[in-house]
Amino acid sequence: MLYEPYWQAAAVLAAYALLCWACLRKPTGIAHPAAGASEILIGYASQGGEGQALAEALSGALAHQGAVQVLPLNAVDETCLVQHKIALFVVSTYGEGEPPDSGLKFSHRWLRSSSEKLSHLHYAVLALGDKTYQHYCGFGVAVDSALANHGGQRMFPATQIDRLSEADLDLWQQRLQQAGLLQVDDHSLVKTAPEQRHGLVLSSRRHLNSGSPGGALYHLQFKLPEAEIIHWQAGDIAVLHLPKSATGESAQRKYSIASLSSSGQLDLLVRLVNKDDGGYGLGSGFLCQQLTPGSRAEFCLQTNAAFHGPTENLLIEDAADVTQSPSMILIGNGSGLAGLRAHLLQAIENRSGGHWLVFGERTKKYDSVFAGQLEGWQQQGVLAELDRVFSRDGGELRYVQDVLQQKSQQLLQWVNAGAFIFVCGSQQRMAPAVHRVLVDVLGEDRVEQLILQGRYRRDIY
């Protein structure tokens, strides 16, 4: 999956923790009226992992104050809030103002009622978002308002962070200092800290859809260094560190990994982004046009637990017995096939079969990517169902959501039998349309239940 919405400062997560830890080793006192709380609560709502990582970094920075409890928002109930006097919330916004899956329960519990029960609570909200979306930081702002409506005492206005901007994060840090929670002598912007990067050599790059009416899609393979032990799980993300530009600025791009570490290579599916000025997207242009086979690119790996599979450690002894492994319904389009392919490769390693892939592209003639591999997996029983739909070929079925709607009874049967649903691909059209079909077929309450159970997992952009 291509993460071309530009989170250029994602490396600041580790930097934030390191800077705060280094500066806070000396004893400090809390001047804020909420001082004396035996424990500080940090609640987070995170879909791709950034919010959780920042919450954990903040926990390390506040450790000198005493006990700090870090919880996903879904685990923050009334009892939990009553037991704390100070609470900090790190809240991402998902899609168009929606709560991340880890904040869905909190949303229902606190955003839909108005009783005042939190007058003892001093709180602050760090809202993560992306200004390119209409409802910028929408869920974080809603959490901030809900806590105030319940009587909570806001320490300072919600701090909105655009794509992990260093300047915005520095403002959050300064506000915590002013509230008496942090005392840091150095008020400069957060500096870049060393990360665990891996220099990977591009061994091959293949254009998968030459002649397609859509953007060019490339399959890139990077050889893992023999001297390093590099491991990731299906669903995890590779973060590309781009060379510094002429202005000296660094940038990163995120991609779903289309392979398993046991293969000895890191595979990506990258859509070449064509800009209006005739140029290419920064990350896709580097990978698909500038980087040559034999050259190195720097990556670090990011855990994406919200998109991990149901049976990462399962090994079925009898290859014919697939009933022990929950079936997966894998739904995606375009470069989103990367994350789904990794899950199917994991299923093969686990000797698990009987899964269902619904995948959309533009034309059958030019966009039948990995057709031989997918058909082979169907013949082997890894895939019990394989539905490929092409939007530019005409006919009744044009998009993946149309397949699901037509096969609604089968969809219901699979879910009732315990299947997990994985969606990977476009947030603009595909993912919302698939979600509407799921609600239509299963009902809104059932879909929310699947989210809370971890049986409906999304990696969309």
From TrEMBL:
GO cellular component terms attached to this protein's record: cytosol
Source domain of life: Bacteria
Any one GO molecular-function label of the UniProt entry: flavin adenine dinucleotide binding
Swiss-Prot/TrEMBL cofactor(s): [2Fe-2S] cluster
SUPFAM superfamilies: Ferredoxin reductase-like, C-terminal NADP-linked domain, Flavoproteins, Riboflavin synthase domain-like
Domain FAD-binding FR-type: 195-310
The EC number(s) this enzyme carries: 1.6.2.4
Keywords, ordered alphabetically: Electron transport, Flavoprotein, FMN, Transport
Flavodoxin-like domain ranges (all copies): 40-177
Keyword Transport set for record: yes
Keyword Electron transport: yes
Name under which the protein is recorded: NADPH--hemoprotein reductase
Organism encoding this protein: Halioxenophilus aromaticivorans
